[in-house]
Structures are given as C-alpha cells and as structure tokens.
Amino acid sequence: MLVLVALFLVVDAVLIALAVARIAEAEATAGGPIPSFGIPDVPTPEPEQTAPPAALAAQNRYIATVDGVTIWRSTLGSCEGSDAVIEFSTNGGVAWSTLVTTEMRARQVLALEVVDADTIWVVARAGDTCAVSGFASFTGGEFWEPRPEAVTLLRYLDRDAADVVHLQGQPVTAPCPEPRQAVSREGATTVVCDDMVAEWSGSTGTWATLEVPGLLSAAPTAGNHTLAVWGSAGCDGVSIQVVPVPLGLEQPVRTGCYLTETAPTDVSLLRNGNTVWAWVDGDFRVSTDGGASW
Asked: In 3D, which of 71, 57, 91 has the Cα closest to residue 277?
C-alpha cells in the first residue's frame, strides 16, 4: 500500500511539473511580438529625369530651300579630314544626289544659301590652303565659280573664331562665348547657343535673346522661329516648338515631337510654310503639318 501511495505522488509531481512548463512556454509565446507577413513598405521611386544632351559642338550641317521642293543640304567637312559633301533633292527630301564640286573643293562649308532653283551661294574654307572663300552656282549646282563677294553677302560662323558672327562682311560679337549655329533666312539671322536662341537686330545693332533649356537647333522664318529642344516634358525625343519674333515677348509653344530614344548630337532644322525638315544624326525626316507628325 505504501508503495502505491509513493508511486502516485511521483506521477502527480511529474504531471504538475509538465503543466507548469507548458504554462511558462505559453506565456513566453504570448508575450513576444506577433510576426507580420504583410507586404513590406517599398519606397516610391522618383520620376526619371530625361538625360540632357551631350555637349554639342558647332553646327555640322546645313539645309536650305526656296520653294520647299528642291532642298539643298551640306555636311560641314574639315580642313584636316574629309571634304564637305553638298547634296540636293528635287522631291522634298525623299531622294538625294551628290554634287560634283571639284571646281571649288569646299573642304569646310561655313554657309549655304539658296536664291532660287538655279542660284546657290556658298562660303567655305577651300583648296589646299583651306582659306575662307566665296563661290556661286547659276546652273543649279552643276557648275561653280569663285565669287569673293559671297563672303560679304552671307552670314556665317568661322570655326577659327567661334566668338564672332560674320554678318554680311561685318564681324559682330556673338551673343555667347561658343555659338553652335548661325542660320540666315528671309532676312532673319539666328544664332543657337547652349540653352539660348538669339536674333540679330540690324536697327538696334544688338542681339535679342530668349532662354530655351535644351535647345538644339533653330530655323528662322519671317514671323517666327521653329526650335528643336531636348528634354521637354511630354516628349520622348526632340520637341518641335515655335516662338514668335521679336524674341523675348512670348515663350515657345510645342507643335510636335520627333521621337528618338537617345539624345542626338547633330540637329539641323529647315522650315518652309507649314513644312518642317529635320536632320537628326543619321535620319532626315519631313513633317507637312508644322512638326505635329513625321
């Protein structure tokens, strides 16, 4: 009998010990933090900023027209490397033919201006000495002849003196230290600088300027300037904008977008009426609705 009582007490003690251990374990579990399996907080990404274009050198190409059908274009060329290439199109820029210019050997074109379908003026560094020279063709580019007066008739930038704009024989201090482009059409002379466009006023002898962040190129006409701008909100490419003259009174208004995935390094524009031509790196496109579609 005593053995049974002793055995009962031992079993009872073991059961009590197990119960106490389970209570302690339950309290420890209840007292700890409840694990969470929800979606972790993810920081909201900042909106991507459009990468600015690489630093652009002076204009490397030119486009000109009178009637919007026959188009002339030229590469810059180099005194140390390849000669300039002058081409023309008789169907608005769809197909191109290269001119034979051995008579003048234009090594580096500084200005290209078209008077009519037959008459073209060029200022270029030419020949073995690569001196600034004037030339003209009165046969639609078939034959060329020296015309020194072209140097005093046209408006251009000389790469050897980048801080000067030559306006019909008169050297004028440029509106910025390193202008990239000087374009003359319909009596207007426009200079493109980093983030700024400028127009020369012959009556006041000064530059009218307008800040345009991301400015790549400009095409002046009698009543307004058509601009190519990189990094404009709402345009995944080159924004085509128009600003009336005189500059400084109104801000540019976007009329279209030239889609391109990367920032271009060489851009030239030409406008005739509602038709806009854009030479962007290796692409040459035309818009017949002011740049709204290409």
From this structure: 71
pTM of the model: 0.78
C-alpha span between 143 and 140 (Å, rounded): 8
Q: Which long-range contacts (CB under 8 A, 24 or more apart) does 166-172 make?
A: 167/200, 172/200
Distance of CA 73 to the CA centre of its chain: 19
Strand order in the sheet with 275-280: 267-272, 275-280, 283-287
Q: Is the pLDDT of residue 161 over 90?
A: no
Domains of the chain are 56-160 (no CATH), 174-288 (2.130.10.10)
Q: Assign residue 10 a region: left if phi > 0, alpha if psi is -120 to 50, beta otherwise? A: alpha
And the tokens for 75? 């590469």
Beta partners for 166? 156, 171
Count of CB atoms within 10 A of residue 131's CB? 11
Q: In a 3-state reduction of DSSP, which class is residue 292?
A: coil
What is the Cα–Cα distance from 30 to 216, expressed in whole angstroms?
68
Q: What is the pLDDT of residues 72-123, one digit of tens each?
A: 999 999 999 999 999 999 999 999 999 988 889 999 999 999 999 899 999 9
Report the alpha-carbon distance of residue 93 to residue 167 in Å, rounded.
Answer: 29
Mean pLDDT of the chain: 83
DSSP 154: S
Q: 165 is written with which tokens?
A: 């704009």
In whole angstroms, how large is the CA radius of gyration of the chain? 36
